[in-house]
Amino acid sequence: MESSLELTTSLTGTYPPLRTRIFKIIVIGDSGVGKTCLTYRFCAGKFPDKTEATIGVDFREKVIEIDGEKIKVQLWDTAGQERFRKSMVQHYYRNVHAVVFVYDVTNATSFRSLPAWIEECRQHSLGQEVPRILVGNKCDLRHGLQVGTEVAQKFADSHSMPLFETSAKNPDDNDHVEAIFMTVAHKLKSQKPLMLSQVPGDGGVLPLRKSEDEDEKSWSCGC
Question: How far apart are the C-alpha atoms of 121 and 114, rounded to whole Å?
Answer without folding.
Answer: 11
